[in-house]
Amino acid sequence: MSAAGFILRRSWDPRLAVAVLLLTASLFTGAPAPAASPPASAEADGAAIEACLGDPSMRGRDPHECGDRVLSSCLASASGGSAVTAALACEKRREEAWNVIARQTYHALESRLGDADRHLLRASQAQFELDLRDLCAVAHALGGSDAELATASCASDLVASRALILRRLAGHGD
C-alpha cells in the first residue's frame, strides 16, 4: 500500500491528510519540513541537553533527566502569570529542545544510510508523527481541565524518547 493510501485510510480529515502528505513528501524528497527554524533558546537548550547526556555522572541514569533540567530551569525562571501557563510554556520549550536533538540526529543518520534504509527511516518518521498526534490526542481527551498541558507533556515525552532512540542508533547513546 502506498504512503498516501495508508494516510488517507488512517485519517478521515482531508486537511490533516494533506498536511501529513506534505510532511511525508518533504521527508521523502530529503527537503526539510516546511517549519520555522527553532528559536535560539531551543538550540541552546538542545546543546545543554546534549552536554548533560555526555556527562559521565549521567551513566546509568534516566537520560530524560537532562530534558527535565530544561523544564525545571524554565519553571524556576518563570515570572508572573499562572502556574499552568508557565508549565505549558516550559513543556513546549522542553519539546523544542528535544526536537533540535532529534532533527540533528535524524539528518546525521540519514546521511549515513543507503537508499533503502533511508526510506525506512523516513517511513518511521512519518509513522512517529502519526503516533505523536494520536497519543497526544488521547492525552488531551484525558487531561480534563489541564488538557493543553497534558498534550504538551505528551509531545515533550514522546519527542524526547524519539530523540534518544535516534541517538542510540547513531551511536551516541548507551
Descriptive terms for the model:
174 residues, mainly alpha, 7 helices, globular, disordered N terminus
Describe the structure in your own words.
- With 174 residues, the protein is mainly alpha-helical.
- The chain has one domain.
- 77% of the residues lie in helices and 0% in strands.
- It has helices spanning 3-10, 14-29, 40-54, 64-77, 83-112, 115-142, 147-169.
- Helix 3 (40-54) crosses helix 4 (64-77) and helix 3 crosses helix 5.
- The radius of gyration is 17 Å and the shape is globular.
In short:
By secondary structure, the chain is an all-alpha fold. The chain is built from seven helices and no strands. 77% of the residues lie in helices and 0% in strands.
Helix and strand arrangement:
Elements: H1 3-10, H2 14-29, H3 40-54, H4 64-77, H5 83-112, H6 115-142, H7 147-169
Assign a percent range to the helix content: over 70%
User: Strand portion, in percent?
Assistant: under 5%
Specify the overall morphology: globular
Return the average pLDDT rounded to an integer: 83
What is the number of beta strands?
Answer: 0
Rg (C-alpha, Å): 17 Å
- Residue stretches low in confidence (pLDDT < 50, at least 5 long) are 1-34
Largest sheet data = none
Structural class computed from helices and strand pairing: mainly alpha
Number of domains: 1
- Alpha-carbon distance between the two ends: 36 Å
Query: What string gives the helices and strands in order?
Result: HHHHHHH
Number of distinct helices: 7
